[in-house]
């Protein structure tokens, strides 16, 4: 399993949404609830021993200023754990309940379960990176995580990721809604217009979304050898529906579905490596 999200030193990455100390910390009750949700150790003595072991690791890492191969190994493990946990929770919708329990609710009108795996991937990666940033700065360097605080290092980190999630998600949701509105206006303007007229003006696109989209495409598309599928995936990543992406690539919607289905098994391992990163800085 690859060791880092998006490759490189995760600790050097800063979140695209402003984050602060409040994003990093849950109350003792919230941490206890999260511990149970994560299936953490329930025996008090075992839990205390685990937290003390975590404290030993933290002090060892502190002696090296939270840098170097040992620290990166810990960060990579947390990143992988956070990524897979959040992917599961975003797929089920559980993440919205967790965010509400953490005191960072997503407005009801912005909650959706109709987002694509690619959408969830982008939101989860940025949430984990945001969680890593505040976790290191406040939880570790400023010693806000303590072994007597009631939570293991893993639980405290997941708490930071959950609290980073709403800002990242809302930024994605608002950008996605703007793009859909632009596409709807284009279709309403001329139903018989050439499909090229549906291409949004990139000069007016949100810079953050454009940067994330370009970076994602640069790393995903080389794995896909079918040129029509490559093109369709590009349009999908830019916010187009599967139907319009297929049309733009010269395929029917059903044909695109069949081709992408055949790709899934073959690309599963490569995509997993892409999602967790293998080289290159974010």
UniProtKB/TrEMBL annotation:
It comes from the Bacteria. Residues 1-20 are annotated as: Disordered. This is Sigma-70 family RNA polymerase sigma factor. The lineage of its organism: Bacteria, Bacillati, Actinomycetota, Actinomycetes, Kitasatosporales.
């Amino acid at each position: 399993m690859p060791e880092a999200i998006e490759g490189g030193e995760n600790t050097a990455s800063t979140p695209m949404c402003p984050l602060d100390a409040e994003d990093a910390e849950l109350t003792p009750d919230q941490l206890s609830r999260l511990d149970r949700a994560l299936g953490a150790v329930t025996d008090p003595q075992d839990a205390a021993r685990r937290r003390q072991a975590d404290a030993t690791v933290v002090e060892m890492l502190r002696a090296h200023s939270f840098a170097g191969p040992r620290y990166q190994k810990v960060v990579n493990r947390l990143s992988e754990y956070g990524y897979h946990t959040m992917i599961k929770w975003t797929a089920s919708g559980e993440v919205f309940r967790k965010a509400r329990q953490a005191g960072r609710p997503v407005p009801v009108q912005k909650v959706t379960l109709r987002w694509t795996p690619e959408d969830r991937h982008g939101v989860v990666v940025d949430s984990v990176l945001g969680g890593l940033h505040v976790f290191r700065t406040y939880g570790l360097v400023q010693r806000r995580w303590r072994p007597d605080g009631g939570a293991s290092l893993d639980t405290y980190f997941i708490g930071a990721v959950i609290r980073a999630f709403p800002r990242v998600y809302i930024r994605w949701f608002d950008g996605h809604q703007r793009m859909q509105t632009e596409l709807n206006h284009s279709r309403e303007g001329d139903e018989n217009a050439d499909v090229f007229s549906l291409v949004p003006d990139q000069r007016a696109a949100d810079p953050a979304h454009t940067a994330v989209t370009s970076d994602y495409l640069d790393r995903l598309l080389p794995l896909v050898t079918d040129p029509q599928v490559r093109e369709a995936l590009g349009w999908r990543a830019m916010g187009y529906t599967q139907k319009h992406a297929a049309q733009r690539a010269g395929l029917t919607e059903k044909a695109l579905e069949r081709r992408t289905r055949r790709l899934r098994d073959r690309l599963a391992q490569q995509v997993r490596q892409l999602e967790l990163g293998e080289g290159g800085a974010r």
